[in-house]
Amino acid sequence: MSKWVKSLALVAFVATPLAAADLGLGRPATEAEITAWDIDVRPDGQGLPEGQGTAADGEEIYNDQCAYCHGVFGEGEDRWPQLAGGEGSLADETPIKTVGSYWPYVSTVFDYVHRAMPFGYAQSLSDDEVYALTAYILYMNDIIEDEEFVLSKASFGEVEMPNESGFFPDDREAEYAAGEPCMTDCTNGPMAVTMRARVLDVTPETEEQ
Length: 209
What we know:
Oligomer: single chain
CATH class of the largest domain: Mainly Alpha
CATH architecture of the largest domain: Orthogonal Bundle
Strand order of the largest sheet: 1-2
Number of domains: 2
Structural class: mainly alpha
Radius of gyration: 23 Å
Helix content: 25-40%
Number of helices: 7
Largest sheet: 2 strands, parallel
C-alpha cells in the first residue's frame, strides 16, 4: 500500500470521540494525533511553542526558502503574495494588503508560516526558524527596527502591528428575510453590471476581447 493510500486510510478512520462513539465512524484520535494537529496560535500568544529567533537569523532562511515566490524584498514575484510595503494604501481603490499594511496580529504571521510555509513543504521548519522568519518579515516591514531583536514566546507581546486597530468585532445583527426563500425566477428587476473585477484582471478592457 502506498504512503498516499495509507494517509487517506488514516484520514478516513480517525474520528473525533463524538463521531466514534455516537456515529460508529472510525476510532477516537490519539493524544499524539491531537497534539500534532493542535498548532494554532492566538493573538494573545496562547499556543506559541518554545523557541526564539532574530531578523538577522531569518534573512538567510528567507532567501533560501521564501524569496523565490515572495521576492528578495517581500515585493512578491509574479502572482505570489507581496509581504512588505503598501503602507497607507488601504483606503485606495486598489489597496496593497501586506503584513505591514494590513495584517492585525503577529500571531497571524507566525501561525501561517508555521502551518503552511514553505509552499509545498509545509511544517518543515523548526520552531526557531519560524520565529526567525517571522522576525525578518516584521523587520522588512519596519515593524521592528533592530535586526537583533529576539522574537520569542516571552517577547511576542512587545510587537505592535500598525493596523491592529483596523480590526474589531462585528457587532451588527443579522437580518433574515421573512417567509420562504425564493428558489426560482427570483429577480426583482433588470440585471446590470455594477462593478468590475479590475484588481483580479479578469474583466476585458473592450467588448471585443
